[in-house]
Structure formats: C-alpha cells, structure tokens
Design a protein that fits this description.
mainly alpha; about 70 residues
Length: about 70
C-alpha cells in the first residue's frame, strides 16, 4: 500500500527506524530499492539519518555523526 510506505518514509525516524535500501542510494548500499525493509537504529541515529538523507552505510562511515 503506497499510503503506508509514504507514511513510513516521513515518520519512521521518530520511532527509531530507517528505510534500509532507499530508491536513490543503490550505488551506496548495493541493493535495489526495498520499500518494506526498515531497520531499527534508535531515535537519535534515525533522526540524524533522516535529516541528512543518509543511508546506514553513510552514517556509519561518518564518525562525526555518532
């Protein structure tokens, strides 16, 4: 259901979850877009990742963020 995926994309970080494999980041993750694949990373990390539009790989590779 697209409405559910839209809501998740806009709100999941508030609960500590991030979209694991976003559409525009396949070159970074090496995995095709999976709109259902969310990972719990904690509210603080998820918020930073959401605000900076980062994948988990990008976040973990940037030592200044955590």
């Amino acid at each position: 259901n697209e409405q559910v995926y839209d809501w998740l994309a806009k709100n999941s970080y508030r609960y500590g979850f991030v979209l694991r494999y976003p559409k525009d980041k396949q070159h970074i993750t090496g995995i095709s877009y999976e709109p259902w694949h969310y990972r719990y990373v904690g509210v603080e990390a998820a918020t930073k990742m959401y605000e900076l539009n980062l994948t988990l790989e990008e976040y973990l590779n940037n030592k200044n963020l955590h």
